């Protein structure tokens, strides 16, 4: 019976119907009635030809965003793990900002690792970026000899699975113009080659703090949390490409909230889906409701040219064909002067420029243009 409706009703709706109908005992006649009504509801939900979808979508987003709060969610117990939410996050998405306030990832694990708290913590420790200052127990500056001495915390490096030999190797690789050696007592000496001032030694000490030792670069904090029957690792900072290379990670579900990073690693379709998912998350977290199709429409508009463009003067607005439409958004004089210099013509095809000139607007999407071929009048029609 479902096969009769394939092509009439979208496949995702039919799949959802098949899942839901299992919980109910229905006869064939009842199922036929349900499917018929489902088809009717789907047709009624379609956008009518001539509907002003752009204005409706804009209003659909504009009204709820006035109710959004300016807040940041904080994970208790982790000082640096915060998530920007509400209006600031929504602006980040629509402006398509490459640098976002609180980048984070949700890392899902493979079947072998997702059920165990111990495995999740172990993988989290492998993912977290570890720098030199995290394993140093004490930093000191020898003023007479003009070098930096660092005492390693052996307990910490044992827990992290790092050896002193690895630390020396990483330091020598990062500080190529400096002499790095280990004393008999285990302390590490970092000394510049040639004559230096005390000020430069202090700068060296600060530079040593950020030397990378292990983990995924960019992941500054990790937090394993239980969701349902499995453990998920939440992170502060993102590095989708490196995380997806780990064997313990489920690459089909792991996500980043940085839409540009998703686009660069997985392509434009994944970037589009990230815009939809992140927008829905922000809206739903605020207890608001925006039609899913309006979110899809915005995502399509932002990604239709194969790259992610924000709803800004340098993004979507800059690519409008109409000079007056571009000028109405921002930097009015700049657009008018540029158009005047090259003699650009405005054909007045969209809404904004016609409103500016007090003319009827070409409103609506999908209306057909009809041209009637009229017959020559005959003697009979003339008498009428």
Task: Note down, in words, how this protein is organized.
This protein is α+β, with helices and mostly antiparallel strands and 384 residues long. Among the domains are: 2-45; 58-76 and 87-100 and 257-319, PTS-regulatory domain, PRD (Orthogonal Bundle); 130-214, Alpha-Beta Complex (Dipeptide-binding Protein, domain 1); 320-356, DNA polymerase, domain 1 (Orthogonal Bundle), CATH 1.10.150. It is built from 17 helices and 12 strands. The protein has helices spanning 11-21, 28-45, 53-65, 86-94, 117-127, 132-135, 154-160, 164-174, 198-209, 240-244, 259-266, 268-285, 292-303, 323-329, 332-342, 351-356, 379-383, and strands spanning 70-74, 82-85, 104-108, 130-131, 136-142, 147-152, 178-182, 188-192, 212-214, 221-227, 230-236, 255-256. A 4-stranded antiparallel β-sheet has the order 10-11-3-12. A 4-stranded antiparallel β-sheet has the order 5-6-8-7. Helix 4 runs antiparallel to helix 12, helix 11 (259-266) packs antiparallel against helix 12 (268-285) and helix 14 (323-329) packs antiparallel against helix 15 (332-342). The radius of gyration is 31 Å and the shape is flat. It starts with 10 loop residues before the first helix and ends with a helix. 20% of the residues are buried.
Describe the protein's topology.
Layout: H1 11-21, H2 28-45, H3 53-65, E1 70-74, E2 82-85, H4 86-94, E3 104-108, H5 117-127, E4 130-131, H6 132-135, E5 136-142, E6 147-152, H7 154-160, H8 164-174, E7 178-182, E8 188-192, H9 198-209, E9 212-214, E10 221-227, E11 230-236, H10 240-244, E12 255-256, H11 259-266, H12 268-285, H13 292-303, H14 323-329, H15 332-342, H16 351-356, H17 379-383
Antiparallel strand pairs: 1-2, 3-11, 3-12, 4-9, 5-6, 6-8, 7-8, 10-11
Helix pairs in contact: 3-13, 4-12, 11-12, 12-13, 14-15
